[in-house]
Specification:
The structure is a homodimer of 521-residue chains. Chain A is built from 22 helices and 18 strands. The first copy, chain A, is of the alpha/beta class and 521 residues long.
């Protein structure tokens, strides 16, 4: 065979990228190694999947999740063997909890080499299964197109989920002549009329709709508002939505509180809870004497739409069943720029007062961002993503992926305790010239853990346990870190300064970081 | 019961720390969350396990490994749920390949809460099993002392391994009145006389001993040198030793090459290979047309001591069997300070010329450190640890743990491609005031991947695949990053500058970072 025919062979690696591209994958966040070299080389043959180099795998999987959340199309990550997948596991966990369609391609050894137990060999099958989505080890290059299409189908769901496809290094280089399957997002599971009828009986102030997933889009919120205005039911939002339309023109929902005792107080008067694209809320942790369920034991919980069901169709059917007329949300006065000391409240107010229309806000603010939703309810229309799976380190990667997937600016609010889990995402933002503003919320402690530690009793200053909550000694310098990654950065220590920094960053293309240092307690 | 009696109750968490301390655990590298609060609180009751806060889990597990490598006693890490274990998985993989005794304590939900599938819930059992060491979920606080002792026994081996102990948050707070078991390192498996007899027949230049594990201690090297001097066999060292005594007074061994073709050439003349504390070497990856085994198919491979066997005892028996007299290693001239451009060779020479006695060198230099062992063979006696499992991000954490466990300075050589996987280790070095010098080897590319990519054919400049090998655009500023973490830092661009920086850092307590920028190709 002449050399030029040899090089023209379509390989498994080509089939993989072509199938991903045809299935909606526009970018792949990659941290490849030797076992992925056929896959990397095949990127040079087209078909137009944008490779985005990341310096560590938590960034790859978190960015794939962020891309999926803002676009609704699959995000993709390219990882290296068991350790690469392990490093990306936590953000796949967050993606699973967000129902994000994500395809993680993991290069692996051929069977003959894995049998030798080489240094990088590990129990990849067990590890991949523990992600809790879909997993397959591709058997050969000849069927790699089919395997990739199946991975895409699994990722789309419904509901969306992470799909892990292990590809042996030799398989990626083997010939493949399968046609490209164009996998599309499947329809959501249809609405059951009986379920709509049941939901229609949930009326009055002791009934509530708990919205999640697609019910938190502009359309879903509009429909739910009409339902509530007619039925008299309360509207609630799940604690950690994957992405929610927010600000001008949408109703701002009451969010189920993170703290179980507060959530239980919030839900104490709810006799009937209707789930719309959400799951029944449970507390994040087990506490002595506190139930894990957040509704009362005798609250009736019913499901209008489970995750993966057609929540919008269900709300439309419910609107029709109730004959609920359109509702115009009450216009809110424009938020005012705060002044004075930088506190969690004034920080959120500064965000609310400076937010541009179309911004995607990535919220990993933990304790410091409690006021965020309230503070941005009158801002121009925007979207907010949250820490669905509560595994730290989602914020910066999600912002990277969201910026690759969306036209507007991305604003990431990241607590200092979370920042270091995936800080190298900053470098990829700089490399790709993405319009991302990162605000690091600096309180120099794991405030949420101090709070949890105090549940168990007093904690002496200077004790071993107190030392494990304390992020000072030495103070981290986030401005220096950002510059190290090639991102311009500045510090803000007052609400005015923060507002100025936010406005300036929005006016200048490319990434920026603001270190927001709270006033001492 | 009066309040003071209540607070005096000994809990499962107390039993855990007391048992760990009695079993040789002196420090615990911790990145705890809510589910570990009983364990954190119990640190305040003694018994003297030093908690070292780390900002991300790869640092926790890598530091536990580093501590274990330099002390021979168990390293410990405290992690938070599935995501915490996943983040620490890769460095547990490296610890497994180093046969390091490591205990990873993972806080978990009680069964009743896990059944509710809370946001942080995941398949922790499957994930922990995939680490490939020992795993147990502690059933209750009453038996947590026994569980901890069993984890220690599993970690000690022989051979050493990672032991993962999941502890439900409620179990840690339950009463426990078990006595403290003082687990000690078990004896290595004894020597089989027949095996010694077989090894005694391996003679002449076409026989070779491949040393690993305890055979790479000063004593092991001394014994092996005597064997070789009498038998005429070659002495080889495994490619990635967990820790090896090196420099003045030891023989510098020929290391099995990382590149399989080179290793195969190196081993082509070996008709008989005797494994002494090592495994038969295999190539890191599968390449078309290259065997995964590195010895010839007809080479006789025998085992004098497998990992976990008494390699020193076996060498002693072999010395006795051969009547091999002591050998004095040839004294080498002191290494000279290099001058001129900074290259991989001059960098290693500068290290060799400035190394203080007793230093622990942590080598994650990848392609840039090929000359390290040769360059430090005449330096004052030191030890070198290497990347046993080839999962990137081991260097900085291992240096942290090694510094907590050893009296002398630690010198970490970390390639720029590896640095960002676990950079927050720098902050813990600053916080603990540890004498660590970090040299970042900056070639601004994944050189090893370029090399692998070229195996598949030409790679066009500016192509998608070339972009995934390139760490410039923008250049990372490691000096700024180090300062951000609170570590003083400087840049070196010539061999003289690097030598000066290394000497200056060794003369001043606390951590230092040197960004060593190679001359452009």
């Amino acid at each position: 065979m002449p050399a030029d025919e040899e090089t023209a062979t379509r390989r498994g690696a080509n089939a993989l990228w072509e199938t991903l591209r045809a299935g909606g994958v526009e970018a792949c966040f990659a941290n490849p190694g030797t076992s992925e070299m056929h896959l990397v080389a095949a990127l040079d043959d087209g078909p137009g999947v944008r490779p985005v180099l990341v310096l560590a795998e938590p960034v790859a999987t978190g960015a794939a999740d962020g891309f999926a959340r803002v676009t609704g199309r699959p995000g993709a990550a390219l990882l290296h063997l068991g350790p690469g997948l392990a490093n990306g596991w936590s953000n796949l966990h967050n993606a699973r909890r967000a129902h994000s369609p994500v395809v993680a391609v993991v290069g692996d050894f051929p069977d003959r080499h894995r049998a030798l137990d080489p240094p990088l060999g590990s129990d990849l099958d067990g590890l991949a299964a523990s992600v809790g989505g879909w997993y397959r080890r591709a058997a050969s290059g000849a069927t790699l197109g089919t395997d990739t299409a199946d991975a895409l189908r699994a990722a789309y769901g419904p509901p969306g989920r992470p799909a892990v496809l292990a590809v042996a290094s030799d398989a990626a280089g083997q010939p493949c002549d399968e046609p490209v399957a164009a996998v599309v997002a499947p329809p959501a599971r249809p609405v059951d009329a009986a379920v709509v009828e049941a939901a229609a009986s949930a009326r009055g102030p002791r009934a509530a709709l708990l919205l999640g997933g697609p019910a938190l889009t502009r359309r879903g919120l509009e429909l739910a508002t009409r339902v509530a205005a007619t039925s008299g039911a309360r509207l609630l939002m799940e604690s950690f939505p994957a992405i929610v339309d927010h600000g001008a023109g949408t109703v701002s929902l009451e969010r189920v509180n993170y703290v179980p005792e507060f959530a239980q107080a919030q839900l104490a008067e709810v006799d009937e809870l209707v789930l719309v694209g959400s799951r029944e809320p449970v507390g994040p942790f087990d506490y002595e004497g506190v139930a894990g369920r957040l509704v009362r034991a005798d609250t009736r919980v019913s499901t209008l739409a489970a995750p993966g069901d057609d929540a919008l169709g269900a709300l439309e059917a419910l609107v029709e069943r109730l004959g609920a007329p359109p509702v115009r949300p009450a216009p809110l006065g424009p938020p005012e720029r705060p002044t004075g000391a930088l506190t969690p409240a004034s920080l959120c107010a500064a965000v609310g007062a400076t937010l541009d229309e179309g911004t995607v806000v990535v919220d990993e603010s933990i304790t410091s961002g409690l006021h965020l939703f309230e503070a941005t309810s009158a801002s121009p229309a925007h979207r907010i993503t949250t820490l669905t799976g509560q595994a730290l380190g989602y914020g910066l990667p999600c912002a990277l992926g969201a910026a690759v997937g969306s036209a507007g600016r991305v604003l990431a609010l990241v607590a200092d305790g979370s920042f270091l889990y995936s800080a190298p995402a900053l470098w990829s933002m700089a490399r790709e010239g993405l319009d991302v503003t990162v605000v690091v919320l600096v309180n120099r402690r794991y405030a949420i853990l101090e709070w949890e530690r105090h549940r168990l009793g007093a904690m002496a200053e200077g004790s071993a346990s107190a030392s494990l909550m304390d992020l000072s000694r030495p103070d981290l310098d986030y401005v220096a870190l950002a510059r190290g990654f090639g991102v311009p950065a500045a510090r803000a220590t007052t609400a005015e300064e923060l507002g100025d920094r936010l406005e300036a960053s929005a006016a200048e293309p490319g990434p920026h970081l603001v270190e927001a240092v709270f006033a001492p307690r």
